[in-house]
Amino acid sequence: YMNLLARNWAQVKYSEQIFAIGTIIKPGDKNTKGYYNKGKYDIVDGGTGYAVMMGINNKREVFVFDQLRDKWFRWSYSTMTFIKLDETPTIKTQDFAGIGTREITQDGIEAIKDVYNKTFNN
Fold first, then answer.
1. Distances from the Cα of 102 to the Cαs of 2, 4, 84, 117, in angstroms?
2. Separation of alpha carbons 45 and 53, rounded Å
3. Is the dihedral of CA 38, 43, 45, 47 positive or negative?
4. What is the pLDDT of residue 122?
5. What is the pTM assigned to this prediction?
6. CB of 102 within 8 A of CB of 20?
7. Rounded Cα–Cα distance for residues 34 and 1 (Å)
8. Residue closest to 96 by CA, chosen among 76, 73, 116
9. How far apart are CA 11 and CA 62, in angstroms?
């Protein structure tokens, strides 16, 4: 697992923005495997959550496409929660990280395409 954590840190370390595909688990809720979020903050499920938290802990701009809700969310440092976005986020720096689940859905793939299309076709 240390190799996976090192890989996550290498992706996040020099990034200014993080775009993740996964599932947000609210405090008290459980994931699809039956594990509860026992913390007081929103988390991202699975290994993707480690990279997301590394980004949050290092004050990066973090976006998560929640595949269950089919929506983009942004981490808010003022409310310490993920806030639903009304539109697709855009890449604003060349130093960004794209991370995500091995269990990507077609909606997750489309979310990635939407970010690229919105960023580079405007």
1. 18, 13, 23, 23
2. 11
3. negative
4. 64
5. 0.93
6. no
7. 21
8. 116
9. 13
**Residue type present at position 94:** Q
Question: What does the pLDDT average to over 90-111?
Answer: 95
pLDDT band at 4 (very low <50, low <70, confident <90, very high): confident
| pLDDT for res 1 | 74
**What are 103's two structure tokens?**
């269990």
Helix 46-57 × helix 2-13 angle, to 10°: 40
Q: Indicate the range of 22-26, 98-102, 106-110 predicted with least confidence.
A: 98-102
The answer to whether 77 and 59 have CB atoms below 8 angstroms apart is: yes
DSSP 4-67: HHHHHHHHHHT-SEEEEEE-EE-TT-B-TTS-B--SSS-EE-HHHHHHHHHHHHTT-EEEEEET
